[in-house]
User: What shape does this take?
Amino acid sequence: MSGKTLIENLKEINSQISDLFLLANPFFRLTKPTEENLSKYKDYKKRYMNLKTFFNIIRFPLIVIAQALWNISLSLITPWEWYPRQELGSQNNNLVGLSQVTTANPKFTADPLLGQIPMQLNQNDSLAMFYLNGTRISRGVLRKLLLCQDLKEVAINSKTLSPFETIYVQFLNFKASLILIKLIVKSNDKSAEKLYLFSEGLIYQFRRPTFANLVLLRRLGKVLEKNHTKVLFFTLEGHAHEAMVITLIKTTFPEVHIKAIQHAPIVLSQSGYFENLILLRQSDSVLCTGEIPKEFTLSYLENQTDSCRDVKVIGSSKSQQIFSSVDIALNRTPGSILFLPEGTEKSTIEFLCLFRYFARIFPDIQFVIRLHPAASSTIGVKKLLNEPGLNNAKISESSLSGDLCRAAYCVYRGTAAAIEGLAYGVIPIHYNNNAFYDLDPILMRLMDHPTAESIEKLNKIFQELSVNNSLLNTDSEKSLEYFNAYFAPEDIFNFY
Assistant: This one.
């Protein structure tokens, strides 16, 4: 076996991939290395890895046929997804924005990812928004909800294509898989790890997540063909569809200017973000939430040739009016600890278990956990929530600002809420039991804060807090400075 890490091997594979259909494959793009995102690579460096590689090669033809039949069947039984096709009414949209809806709201007063940015742009220019639908709401209903943002032009991406388009895309995807096979054969590195990743990626090329990106590729391509688009903007996190869209613009619509918006915190191990950064052209732009992510982004781009150099701060809706220090002092529960899991089922379950475990050990400490709406309704989480509660363990039903106003400390791994907590004087305690990956959005070199790599270390921190609540006091002014440097006020003029 080679000594290369998973990220190093994926980076080498990505450097060899330029085909749009292969770029659509999420297997080769690792965003934040959370437990959910790493589950795709669960057999990496396992003893039976070679056997899994062999099994993948044997089952590849069956997977191709099975997935093709499944996609065609879905197309036939869900005609409302692809007909009638949602078109943009105008063909003179200077700006086209690409965003995503992951949770259903009765009314959208702002973009789910980009906040007020689309509405502000709509006041000054001709704007059309194209949304990915991550909900079970029909395209027609979702479009009406999104029009509540006072946007005139909104189109929702479909989840399927017509049967004929599906067959055509499946054929092109099979041709792309042959390119991947050729890469495997010609590769100088035929280590067990690299062959395993190639074989898994080959299977993933025909999974639904890849096909969903290929639907986006086809739909967005048609939108850009019919519009006189000057600028395309979208969020940048490190996803496969971002790499695919960037390459689509570079190869097919080179006259379109890209503005990639970093809207969520960046962590050091977020390899997909950095790999997508270097795909951008010198004429493109990266718009950051604040000075810290801007400097973080620039420091990486400085070492790259022919890459994007236009990096500016556009700000974030998170930089909002906060309570005064007097209000916070009146509301705060001394010594209270707020758990802040990410918006995934595994993270929520893990933090719920930690939350209940420590509530039993430290009955004199008030524990609160704030569940992300995207994860609170899953089966595994609901099962845990039905278990008997404890007097000192509360499931929050308050707003985020209300929770942060009352908390003295917060336990987090990679959520932006921990950075928001700095504005309220909440002391962050970073918990990450996977030492291979850095998931902390609060950079230690800029702000010192307690960290725990294990339950035992977290237990030791709580023991110290139970004896002396002021033990982990931090500079509140420095905390606020960090927040303001990460989430600056929105400045739409920096978009142009």
User: Anything to note?
Assistant: The mean pLDDT is 90. The two ends are 49 Å apart (CA to CA).
